[in-house]
Design brief:
The protein is an alpha+beta fold. It is built from 13 helices and 10 strands.
Length: about 425
């Protein structure tokens, strides 16, 4: 199967999951995202040269196609030019993931977060977290420093995604502190999902059956256990009437976790919040760990949003192939080793740790498929069980503080330094004396 035939197969897959795109839009998206897997580069010139080499045509023509993919309709030449509406792709992207999700595992975790895209742009994204990584399914870009609240943008993105998830699924929506708001909490609940939002510690809460408000810090147990209960949070306009509060201080982590959710205390585990950190890996996949977005010079927010669709499609398919790459890795046969062998003794009670991420395994598998000229396989997801225990973070060693030198000590050191320089200069001058 030639590279051109593989691209055609991938184009049919993209068209079936994103039916709202026109045929020219599907063609550019398929060619660009498939090339991105191999090249790991956002550079239009490099991608254009590759497509001209592999699919034929002129490099300049390919480059113009890629440029116009990101343009507004008014910036294109011709009377029938249409611009890509990225928001219409959010629900189909999530539905694409759901269609490859195991039917028996009707659980999903969405994480909302913000990330810098260069020095001039801020990315607001909603991502599906999966086995230590993340796949963006909705996003919005703003010029850095833009005034205005972000809550309406989060609510709009969540509303776009809601039709893609079956009503009977359990969906958690997580966010780090600083993004919490009562409006966001209530917007998540309106979709039938469950907020899992971390709070800053400056607020207060009142336990059920009590009349006084206590600082949130007072709910954190000193022994490292998890406190959970029904409370009323905050006394200001942000007030939540009744919610579940989960609080813990994780050993090795610099700050405590205080999370609010609409789930009952017996139905929620604070250990689930560890999945929120997977979004950081997702941001890394778009930058130095994957598509090298940090090298892009594109600064127009609307154009960047369209290019993010290329990265999202490439990431979705790459991670969905990770299961095939993982299956090819040979497991170690510990049972063949002597009972006293060090590898067997150290493996007792430990889980097998993946050597590579699902993103890297999927990309390697796709590269192998392309090299071997095999047909592309339909993607699949095999989510890991939600964590049941709190994570352990390594203790950071703090360097001892160096005492500041007094003014007399600094003056003495300067005098000694000048004396050494003078002595070195005299030695150097003595070496250059004529014999």
């Amino acid at each position: 199967m030639t590279y051109q035939e593989q691209v055609c197969q991938w184009e049919q897959t993209v068209s079936s999951h994103l039916p709202q795109l026109s045929k020219p839009q599907v063609s550019v998206l398929a060619c660009w995202s498939f090339a991105l897997v191999l090249l790991k580069s956002v550079g239009m010139t490099q991608v254009s040269v590759w497509l001209a080499m592999m699919l034929g045509g002129k490099m300049g023509a390919w480059r113009q196609k890629l440029r116009e993919w990101c343009y507004e309709a008014a910036d294109k030449k011709g009377e029938q030019r249409a611009q890509l509406e990225v928001a219409l792709c959010f629900a189909p992207l999530l539905a694409w993931i759901v269609s490859w999700w195991p039917a028996q595992q009707q659980q999903l975790v969405l994480v909302i977060d913000a990330s810098a895209r260069g020095a001039n742009l801020t990315l607001l994204s909603v991502s599906v977290v999966y086995r230590g990584g993340a796949i963006a399914v909705a996003w919005h870009l703003l010029p850095t420093g833009t005034a205005g609240a972000w809550e309406p943008l989060w609510e709009e993105m969540l509303a776009h995604l809601a039709p893609a998830i079956p009503a009977q699924w359990q969906v958690l929506v997580m966010a780090d502190r600083g993004l919490y708001s009562r409006d966001l909490y209530e917007a998540i609940c309106r979709q039938g999902w469950h907020p899992f939002l971390r709070l800053n510690l400056q607020g207060t809460a009142k336990q059920a059956g009590r009349d006084d408000y206590q600082p949130l810090r007072s709910f954190i147990p000193a022994d490292g256990t998890v406190w959970s209960g029904r409370v009323s949070c905050f006394q200001s306009e942000r007030r939540l009437s009744v919610t579940t509060l989960l609080a813990v201080h994780v050993p090795g982590y610099p700050d405590s976790w205080v999370v609010v959710t609409d789930l009952e205390p017996q139905q929620s585990l604070l250990a689930w919040y560890a999945m929120r950190f997977w979004i950081e890996v997702g941001f890394k996949q778009g930058k130095r760990g994957g598509w090298q977005w940090q090298h892009s010079k594109m600064t127009d927010p609307r154009r960047v949003e369209r290019y993010c669709l290329v990265m999202a499609v490439a990431t979705l398919y790459t991670i969905s192939q990770g299961e095939f790459g993982e299956a090819e890795l040979a497991d170690s046969h510990l049972e063949a080793l002597p009972p006293t062998h060090i590898a067997r003794r150290q493996a007792k009670g430990r889980q097998r740790r993946a050597l590579l991420s699902q993103f890297t395994l999927g990309r390697l598998w796709l590269m192998r498929t392309i090299v071997e000229q095999e047909p592309l396989q339909v993607g699949s997801f095999a989510p890991s069980p939600w964590p049941q225990d709190l994570p352990t973070f390594p203790q950071r060693r703090r360097r001892p503080k160096q005492q500041k030198k007094s003014r007399a000590q600094r003056r003495r050191w300067q005098q000694q330094h000048r004396a050494r320089q003078k002595q070195d200069g005299q030695k150097k001058a003595g070496k250059n004396l004529p014999l």
